[in-house]
Sequence to fold (1119 residues):
Amino acid sequence: MATGNDVREIFQLKASDQVRRVQKPERKPDGISRELYGLIGNNVSTVAFNNPTYKPKLNVSKKAVNWTWRPFVNPSRDDDLVLQHWEKTRTDPNEEYRFYKFNKSINLISFSPEEYTSHLKDPDWTMEETSYLWDLCRRFDLRWVVIQDRYEWPPQEADRLALQYYNGNNLVISENAPNVTKKEGEDTPMKDASAAASGSGESFVQATLGGDTSTSTGATNAATATASGSNPPTAAASTSKAVVSNTPAKTRSMEDLKHRYYTISRILTKIRMGDASQAVEKAQLLSSMAYDKNREIERKKNLEILNTRTPEQIEEEEALYLEARRIDQNEKKITRERENLLRLLNTRDIYGPGGPTSAGLAGQVGVAGGGGPGTGIIIPSNSITIPSSSSPSASGAAGGAGGSGHSSANGPLSPSVGKGGAGTATPGGASGAASGTTPKKRKKAPKGSVQADDSAPPTPTTATSGANALKGSSSSNHRRPSNASDGPGGPSSASAILPPPAAKKEKLTPGAYLRSQKMTPIVSTKQQRVQSALVTLGLPFKPAMPTATVMAKWDQVQSNIVTLLDIKKQADKLESDLKVVKMRRGSLGSGSSGSSSSLTGSAASGAGGATGGASLGSSVDGNFGVKREGTGDESGTPGPVKKKKRKD
Amino acid sequence: MGTYGGDEVAALVLSVGHTWTQAGYAGEDTPKSIFPTSVGWVDLPAEADQGDDADNSEDTQMQDVTQDGASASDSNHIGKKDADGGDVAPQPVGAGLVPSKKKVTKRGKYYVGDGEISCWRPDMEIKSPMKDGLVEDWDALEQIWDHAFLKRLRCDPTEHPLIITESAWNTREIREKLTELAFEKYNFPAFFVAKDAVMTAFAAGRPHALVVDSGGDMTSVVPVYDGYVLRKGIMRQSLGGDVLSDQVLQQFKASDVEVTPQYLIAKKSPVVVGQKPNVVLRDRPATPSFHKMMQMRVLHDFKESVCQVAESTYNEQNISTRPQKPYELPDGYNFNFGTERFKVPEIMFNPKEFLKNPTPEQENFVGLPKLIFNSAQSCDIDFRPTLFGNVVLTGGNTLFPGFADRLHWELNSIPHSYKVKLHAPGNTVERKCGSWLGGSIMASLGTFHQLWISRKEYDESGSNIVNKKCV
Ligand SMILES: Nc1ncnc2c1ncn2[C@@H]1O[C@H](COP(=O)(O)OP(=O)(O)O)[C@@H](O)[C@H]1O
Ligand SMILES: [Mg+2]
Fold:
């Protein structure tokens, strides 16, 4: 392989030492790792070493450009003022002044007096004033802010002359334009404030000078608002009051001026460009001259309102905006949580009463309205008091349950209806019975159909109660308590024809077994809490006499506890959420009464929505009063949020 | 050169403020000369001119060191720059125009320049040609022009165009007189009068700006739109650095401290903090105006070296934890100043509360943020966001540490939804000479040269031309 040295050899050049050195790095001594040697070894530095290169010296051979100090005239001027400057020595003596090309002026459509009288008349304007406006437009190149600032009709004599000087070729303002009373020279030093005042009215300046910010921000017309206020005028203001000339100058707003200007421009364009060939150009021009005075006024008014918002308002708006965004972002999360919750409540069915027999029994009992075997077991439920469950929030979760999962709560409690409510057998009780009959359905069906499905496979023994239950639960699907109170009249055919779901058969363990073995296991994480709840209830960890009935009830109690615990957890979370929302609302301080009423409103609707929950509540009375409260509360939680959203 | 549009015609730029006069060449970044606008005037019989010089040299030694240093370096500076051969070669002094120092006019004598006016003379009155931003004393102003062009810049006025700055509320009559002065007395080939607020905006590189200028005698807020002053938005009040210094004096008086200017002190010895000064005074009867000026200098110096603005709201408790600053008056009295040093500049923000013993006029003062807000509020609503986004701070009185921070804070706490951006040059010279700098930039632009009022135009139209061409 040919190296650089070979090439050098061919060309009979001296071999380069340097190159060779680079080519043959020293060998790595034995007993030292390559990496280490790379670091400490006597090898080529990894950092490229460049010989410092110096900038080439200034190329003096190039000839210096000649500059000369010479006089020049500026063609932008109409006099021949000669100024002097340094410039590169010219080759062309007649070269134009470099900055001449920047001397631009706008093209204003001007009008003749004849045109004015024939087309441009306006009752609010005289021709003199119109041409004064035109002069100003030309003078200030359509800088409307400046035009409006300097606009003063009738103009001061000196102003008039200055404008005339500037717009020499323009219309001559009629000589009888009224002169202004005062000469600038006699004015006191503070005059300028008053000059301003004469333009826009005395009160305006006074307001802007002395106006209290807080008031001036309040109204669109800040000036008048504060002028009427009792603020002491500032020195300048009071002086201006004294100096202000007594001829009330005509005040024209910027909108007035622009409106006049654009109207005339449009008319003139229409007249001048009658040609059809110019149609496109004309349309373009006309559209560029479009001006809607009222809209502009409206726009500025709105802008004023926008700009005079108090910090609280801005803050509130920002908070609302953030809230809206938060809601948007959390919507999914919330729905997911909701679904979880529903699932949770439905899972209760999983742990529901054991066999069809017991369920049927329970159902029967419930319908029969007798004391029944259930009573014994239910008693403890009277005294179920889980610490802090008395707080309304605990109920919050329950409400969530109430929304759609109420029927599950019903099941185990229905016996108590029988007990407490005696023969009245409220629809709630009925529905309770219904779920009681069909506790095995474990499929977490969408909330709507859950209970219908559940109640669909009634056992023959509980045919009637099944029908009742069917009615109750199907109506509770609709979440309307009134429906529930329809009573066990006609079984809803819709639910009746629902296909019986594949009921989950209880697994039969071969051989003999202990009933206590069949006790539904509790998730280990919850075990402890369930047990402590059992202790509170004064129950042993395991039933002493696990008969089939006892076991069924036991399972019910246990699953109730689990549900309660879960619900409580959920409720705690919702409560804290609610607290946060309430706090936020409080800090916003906007119509707390309104929102609170909405809160109760939604609470009511929540309660209404939670058919099962409500009916359950009413039927169980004290037992789960907490729960009932929660029903409202839980669904109440999104209340203010919803409201805010709407407000937004 | 064409890229930045510069075309320098060796124009002179003159800015006569209430406290300082600045003069120099267009295109440069600092005025060549800055001297007090105040002039000294000694009323004397025409022949009583002798002996004055002797007095003079003796007195100069008694000037305090900084003043001497300042004036010396000032003249050095000019000499050096001229010798450097900048774009203008040293100009011979105009033949007929004698330097005005001690020039005998009528029956008295004017003294102009730092070294001259701060020198004790028994009968020297101090007067300022400017009041409220307007020329009041034309003789004194002429002295200033003389001093600037002939003594400081040492140029031939007939060879340079002149641009001067004026307050936004200057009157027609005054500008006409200024034009006359420029063309009739000095024979400038071309002349222009520019609004100082516009020039300040220019120096800040902004066509639109809300220019907040707080100088010696007044504070003004002027909206500028594309190089034009919006007259209806001009807000001003006679609350400036002098009022603050006067308040310092009142504070000293209240705590029974005498403020003795240098010219009265023959000998002093050090004293313990807070103790009465141990001082031997000279017997130097002076005019009240001279004494006042010298006293004010001490107070200005105190104020400029000690005072500070609280960065957010004034909170006595927070402020009392701030470090104290020691200051020694010329007579040796010295003290550590704590909260006092925050109270004085606070007047700018809250005059109602902090201005002690206000005169009836002063009772109506409003805080600077309010003044700014009111000014912007009187402009078209579409223009307001631009104004708030381009607040330009200028004037010596805004140089207190913390001033810009505080103003920004205050402007943001007024309820409105505009974004406030404050432009406050960190460079002291830039802050004090904003309008001069703008004039310097503008007069060296190629596109500007069509705006000059030429001698010919003046001859044709008279002094009135200034009101037509300079708006
Ligand atoms: N560093 C400073 N801190 C506080 N005030 C200052 C400072 N420098 C100057 N001043 C004050 O600014 C005022 C002069 O303002 P300036 O803008 O320089 O002059 P003019 O009055 O001519 O506009 C004086 O009252 C002076 O005390
Ligand atoms: Mg100034």
